[in-house]
Amino acid sequence: MEKIAVLTSGGDSQGMNSAIRAIVRTGIAHGFEMIGVRRGFKGLMENDFITLGTSDVSDILYRGGTFLQSARSDEFKTEAGQNKAINNLHEHGIEHLVVIGGDGSYRGAQALFNRGIKTYGLPGTIDNDIPLTDYTIGFDTTLNVVTNAISNLRDTMSSHERVSVIEVMGRSCGDIALQAGISSGVDAVLIPEFEWDIKEISDQLAKGFQRGKTHSIVMVAEGAGTAEDVASLIEKHSDLDTRPTVLGHIQRGGIPTAFDRIFTSRMGHKVIELIENEITGVALGMEKNEITYHSFDDIFDSENVVDKHLYQIFQDLI
Ligand code: ATP
Q1: Where do the annotations place Mg(2+) binding (predicted)?
Q2: CA distance between the termini of the chain
Q3: Which of 21, 33, 102, 167 has the fewest CB atoms found within 10 Å of its own CB?
Q4: Which residues sit opposite 284 in a β-bridge?
Q5: Cα separations (Å) of 317 from 99, 103, 151, 264, 309?
């Protein structure tokens, strides 16, 4: 029986469990032996392997996080670290390794692929910052978590006629801020992909209050600035009362949405199909509602771009 191992790496995201479940169950249904590697590449180097049967992935579909746990490892970036990992895979007779993680994890998967291990990537990161896929695992759940958090903030902000400046995740990609901004009807979105003028934003907010608004919300992606800095800049350019809020790790929590569960189930199923068809060294994703795949090289050569049209829609809605 051919063996397939699966691991989760980097920051956890809601839907990773659902992806593991789909890979394991489809793999077993198609006659493979399935192995879980605990704690990402660290566990791969430390031989932290477990055999996974159908019932081992029961009751995880609706849980956030990853039951295999995740880790970051600098040692794995070295040749010596990778040698340990490769030796362990050979010792267990494992030919295929599925890596669920973000950009850094893909680099690790590609390093192993270049050294003869058949690897596959699934985009496990809430930031939606992987090229050649419309979504990453957990992004949709995070949008819902952020949208709900903003609903809760609105009540208190309107009681005190304040501007709430909310910082969300996204170092290089403003998708969480932009899309949660649209779903929450916020008044301004500051993201790293577009320039913004704090004086203009402050004037707009002040006009809103003059028109009778009781509160305003400004969304900031962490790559564009901190909530603290933006709040004090708004106070400098207006007489508005502001409150910064950093949503932080709460964004990684929450029960995975139906979308994330279905998306990951489809990719988990697809990766087994690719293994059977001897297509390897690829990362999966979804484009225009189709599950697609591209070589790691193509992913690294591509740029992740924000949806400009969506930004325009936001601008027209404020
Ligand atoms: P997130 O988007 O949530 O941060 P990520 O997968 O990008 O997830 P990283 O910490 O960048 O998270 O990467 C996860 C792990 O992948 C690292 O701890 C390291 O072990 C491995 N890794 C990262 N870059 C490389 C590289 N250039 N070569 C080999 N391995 C790498």
Answers
A1: 103
A2: 58
A3: 33
A4: 293
A5: 39, 33, 18, 32, 12
Over range 77-90, report the average pLDDT: 98
Amino acid in position 282: V
* Distance between CA atoms of residues 191 and 169, nearest Å: 10
**Residues enclosing ligand 1, CB less than 6 A?**
9-11, 41, 72-73, 76-77, 101-105, 107-108, 111, 125, 127
In the chain, helix, strand, coil percent, each to 5? Answer: 45, 20, 35
Separation of CA 174 and ligand 1 centre (Å):
20
Atom of ligand 1 nearest to the CA of 41: 20
74 part of the active site: no
What pLDDT, in 10s, does the model give residues 175-203? 999 999 999 999 999 999 999 999 999 99
Residue 283's beta-bridge partner residues? 121, 294
Query: Could you tell which of 9, 133, 300, 304 is best to mutate to test the pocket of ligand 1, judged by most ligand atoms within 8 Å of the CB?
Result: 9
Q: How far is the CA of 33 from the centre of ligand 1 (A)?
A: 27
Write the pLDDT tens digit of every residue in 56-83.
999 999 999 999 999 999 999 999 999 9
- Ligand 1 center–CA 55 separation, angstroms: 30
Q: Of 214, 217, 161, whose CA–CA distance to 190 is shortest?
A: 217
Q: Domain segments of the chain: what residues?
A: 3-138+256-300, 139-252
Whether residue 276 is annotated as binding a ligand: the answer is no
Superfamily name with CATH number, domain 139-252 = Phosphofructokinase domain (3.40.50.460)
Q: How many residues does the chain have?
A: 318
DSSP string, 194-249: S---HHHHHHHHHHHHHTT-S-EEEEEEGGG--HHHHHHHHHHHSS--EEEEE-GG
Q: What is the pLDDT of residues 139-156, one digit of tens each?
A: 999 999 999 999 988 888
Q: What is the dotted CATH code of the domain comprising 3-138+256-300?
A: 3.40.50.450
